[in-house]
Structures are given as structure tokens and as C-alpha cells.
Write a structure and sequence with these properties.
The chain is globular and about 50 Å long. It starts with 11 loop residues before the first helix and ends with a helix. The N terminus is likely disordered. The protein folds into 2 domains: about 80 residues, no CATH class; about 90 residues, no CATH class. With about 180 residues, it is an all-alpha fold. Helix 5 crosses helix 9.
Length: about 180
């Protein structure tokens, strides 16, 4: 059993990853990890937790999780504004609310830090695995703040590598091994 993340609400990410792992149980384990890594909120964190639950070796899981988390990024960076414009103008109330909520996320306190520091801000936003951060939200904010793709893509990718290292330490028990050294 993977440990509960200190960075998230107690067991939230782990519980979601477990439920999705069970739900997708008929699929090959690597495909389950890939799919979970593509899902907003869970992303790479959930993928690595699912991989550890499925006893997939860490080095095998890393590539699949990174790839799964990267797949949506270009679409978000290139098309999110058009999608949000459409959602705000459609006649379905919940879509209007969701579009406004997503735009408000891009105008929040975290976005101000990203705007100020651009590359470093985006890298840290994506790289520190806290609830509400990650490649999806980082891409959304980068697109809505009009951060150039030349800056946003490398920052998001480097942040993803940083999150991978942190989550591997947590999901595969490396953090416990380091703590036990001291």
C-alpha cells in the first residue's frame, strides 16, 4: 500500500488513484498508469501511486507517467483559450461556470507569482506536488497568461521531472529510506 501523501489532503490522491486502478483493473497495468497520469488532478502523482500499487518497477513507471502527463500539455497550451471562449458562450450553465472558474484560477495568487517569475515560477508550480498544481494547471495558467511556448514548455517539462523525483521518493519508499539513514 502506498503511503498517504504529506502534500495532499490525507489520502485524497492515493484514494483516487486506488479507485481508478480498481476501475481500470481489466486493462494492462502500464495502460492503467498511462491513463491515470493523463487525468487532471491526479496526473503524474496519481500515476506513480498507481504504479506502486500495481507493483510496477519504478524505472518502468517513470517513462509511462511522464509521457501520460505530457500528452495533454500541447493541447492545453494551444487550444484552451478557444475552448474556454466557447464554454463561456454556450447555453449550458455548468460549462459557463466551469470556464469562469478556470479563468479565475489563472488570475489567482499562484498565477501572479508565475507571471512575475515566468520560467522559474512555472517550473516550481508544476514541480512541487501540491494539490491544485501540476502540468495541467501550469499549462492552463501559462496559456491564459500568454507565456511564450518557448518558455512554458521547457518550464513545464523541467517541473514534471522535479515532480517525478519527489513522487518517486514518496511512492516507492525512497523518502522513508532517506529518513531512516538519519
Amino acid at each position: 500500500m502506498a503511503l498517504s501523501l504529506a502534500f495532499a489532503a490525507p489520502g485524497t490522491t492515493e484514494a483516487l488513484a486506488e479507485k481508478l486502478t480498481d476501475l481500470l483493473g481489466g486493462l494492462p497495468p502500464m495502460l492503467v498508469v498511462f491513463i491515470i497520469s493523463m487525468i487532471p488532478i491526479l496526473e503524474l502523482r496519481g500515476g506513480l501511486i498507481a504504479a506502486s500499487l500495481l507493483n510496477i518497477p519504478m524505472w518502468s513507471a517513470i517513462g509511462v507517467c511522464i509521457l501520460g502527463n505530457i500528452v495533454p500539455i500541447p493541447f492545453i497550451l494551444l487550444f484552451i483559450e478557444k475552448v474556454l471562449d466557447w464554454m463561456e458562450n454556450c447555453k449550458i450553465g455548468w460549462m459557463n461556470k466551469m470556464a469562469r472558474w478556470l479563468r479565475s484560477k489563472a488570475d489567482g495568487e499562484k498565477a501572479a507569482k508565475i507571471r512575475k517569475f515566468e520560467f522559474l515560477g512555472l517550473l516550481l508550480f508544476v514541480g512541487v506536488p501540491l494539490p491544485g498544481t501540476g502540468a495541467w494547471t501550469g499549462s492552463l495558467i501559462a496559456a491564459l497568461l500568454h507565456v511564450k511556448i518557448k518558455k512554458s514548455v521547457p518550464a513545464i517539462f523541467c517541473g514534471l521531472i522535479m515532480a517525478t523525483i519527489i513522487m518517486c521518493l514518496i511512492s516507492y519508499g525512497g523518502l522513508n529510506a532517506i529518513i531512516n539513514l538519519f
